[in-house]
Please model this.
Amino acid sequence: MKDAYTAVIKKENGWWIGWIEEVPGVNCQEATHGELLETLKITLREALEFNKQDAIQAAGNDYQEEKIAI
Model:
């Protein structure tokens, strides 16, 4: 099963605006609802990959990864 995230979406002044609840800084604005969802997915993927690389770099050598379910 893929990870699921929650998009908070609203239409304001002709634009669709959205945020991902679980990941600070992931927000987008698009002209259509469909474009917004696609852009949020792309931005979320990029943010998660950046955070992953940042964590691995901070850990240095000799680290392990473990899945944590909440």
Remarks:
- The radius of gyration is 15 Å.
- Residues 7 and 20 are 5 Å apart (CA to CA).
